[in-house]
Structures are given as C-alpha cells and as structure tokens.
Design brief:
The structure is a single chain. The chain is 37% helix and 18% strand. The protein has 396 residues and is α/β, with parallel strands linked by helices. The protein folds into 2 domains: 132 residues, Thiolase/Chalcone synthase (Peroxisomal Thiolase, Chain A, domain 1, 3-Layer(aba) Sandwich); 229 residues, Thiolase/Chalcone synthase (Peroxisomal Thiolase, Chain A, domain 1), CATH 3.40.47.10. It is globular and about 60 Å long.
Length: 396
Amino acid sequence: MESIKDKVAIVGMGCTKFGELWDKSIEDLIVDACYEAFEDSKIEPKDIQMAWYGSLYSFTGLHLARALKLDFIPITRIENFCAGGQETLRNACYAVACGACDIALACGVEKTKDHRGGFGLNIQEPLDRSMAQWDIPPASQFAQYATRYFNHYHDYYKWDIEGFRRILAKIDVKNHHNGTLSPKAHFQREITEEDVLNAPIVSWPLGLFDACGMSDGGAAAIVTTPKIAKSLKKDYILVKGLGVAVGAGQSYMQPEFDFVHIPETEAAGKLAYSQAGVTNPRKEISLALVHDCFSITELLICEDLGFSPRGKAPEDIKAGRFTLEGEQPVNTDGGLKCFGHPLSASGIRMTYEAYNQLLGRAGPRQVKNARLALTHNVGSNVGIHIGAVSIWGLPD
C-alpha cells in the first residue's frame, strides 16, 4: 500500500467554542468554523473545489452548501460514528493526494444538545438486531473494560478498587486542568482526585467525572497540496499517516477476548505508523489527542498505541508522563472529557489542536519541540469498534 506521507498539507483550520450552544444553529457553527479556516489559510470559499461534511444526523451535504453558499461543487456527507470527524478529513486528504482536486474542505458539525441535532439518547445500534450483541449504554460497555483491567492486573499491582479508581482519577484531573487552558473548551473547571472518587457512580466503577461531556460544536480544515500550501504561507502541517480499522463484531463473541485492549485502535495505529515511518511511538510521537470518552478508554489507548508497554500505563500515569509537563503529553486541550464531544466534529477538533501545537500557537498549553502529533478516535460498540489514527507533522 502506497503511503500518503507528505503528499497532503493542512493550510488552515477553524474550531467553534464547544458547549451547550442553544443560540447557535448547525449553519451558524459551519460558518464559524469554516470562516476561521478560510482566514487562516488565505483561501476563499470560491477556491474550494470539493468538500466533505461530517455529521451523524444531517443526511446530505446540503447544510454545508447552504451555509457557505458553495454552489455546484461536489459535497459528500460522511458518518462513521465517533470516528466521523477523522473520516471526513481522511476523505478530503485522499482526494487531494490522488489529484481529484487541489483544494478541499473538511468540516464536521454536530448539535447534540437540542432537537435541531436530534441526538439525545437516540443512538442507533450499528448491527442487525438479529445478531448477538450488547444492548447496553456506552458507559456500561466501557465499564466492562475498567472492571476487567482491574481484575487482569490485580496481582501485579496489588491494588484495591479505590487504588485503581485513583489511577483513572489522575486522567480526569489532568484533562480538566488542560481544559482550563483551552478558551474554546466546554468545561473549564479544575477538579481533584477526591472530587472524582466522591462523584455519583454512572456505571461501576466509573463515576460522573470519568465520562466525557456531549456538546454542540464544529471544526474545519482546508486541505491542499504541499506546493500550494508553500505558496500561500510559511506555517502549515503535513499528513504523515492515516489509518482506519473497523471491527467485524467478532471480539466479544470470542471466549479469549481479554477486554484489556481495543483491537481496532491497535490496528489503525499500526497502519498509520507504517505510513509515517514511526517505529517507536513512545519516543517519536511528541503529543497525542486521543478518544477519552471515559477515563479507562484513555488508559487503554495509551497501551494500544504503544505509548506505554502492556499493563504499564498506570505506572506512566502516576509518573506524570502524559501531563503537559511530561515526556509525552496526551489530550493537551482537555480531550473529549473537557473540550467536549460533538461526535463528527471531535476528530477535526483534535487535528485543530495538533495543528496549533505543531505551529507553536497553543499558548499556555504549548508542548516544547513538538514534531509529530497523533490524533485518535474510537467509536461504536465494544467488539465492533471503529478505530481511526492520524499522524501529523511539520515539513522537513
């Protein structure tokens, strides 16, 4: 498979404030995100040749066309559950890489907080109802990972359940702190480990602060060739690797499935690393934005993507490896936990943070000497996840 490395550039990005945006429509969010990207890139709407629009509930690309007055260009609506944002951007990147167009727009927008988005609790199951599957809410599914991880490594760590929950609480405290440094984040409040441990249980052992917030919001990227990017401005980033892996619903039907890793994340990571030429992600990835829908998910991801050896993420978390001051910062802008999670916008929001970090624009969150940034999403149900991993870097 031919690598996409260094064949596509992101020359401009935009992101709205995330939150309960009752006074904003879907079109408002599209305009806010895209016009920040237009201004950043020095490109005008009339320059866009193709566009991809990510949304769970908007059934066509008409929202994007109407909001931006993009008459008569191809616009494709993308949906891949929580990986929809990265999938939207991936499609735009491959269009530029193959020469189908020179300048493309990727925009993901979601209204999850009111009827205009229609999200609520109406999460459609991805599988045929005749198949054996878990018909339980996401919190309960990811709690299965937590209980199994606790049991699986109990003999090694000799911990009780409070000791394990304190490890997860360190993730929550870190991401809340990073969110306070992100002006566009939904939640901007410091918390303590005691706050996490004393919060109401959502699905044991996960409490209220172990879960991310659902939000309204949008994000956008202008994608083009490196040659065009260089002619427009000095500061842009390049695609280094893109990987997507979709499970076939087999894992939770197998007695040997261990529930302490997510195979789709691991597979997507290997594909992206191969394209990018990354052989030691623990050393080579400067920072990562990962899908912390729940605290346990971030812990698993750090092992699945090779930031920590198997079973050793708790040690790295205790040592502060993934904090802003640590060796490998994770979720520098607060992650899903605090920036928020409008599903199809999240992957592009992560790229927005990676873009600003690589270009040295992240202000008080800035990671020193950032060279390679990774973004990751995982969606759908346990056993039939969609894993997406993208790696971004600066021109050599």
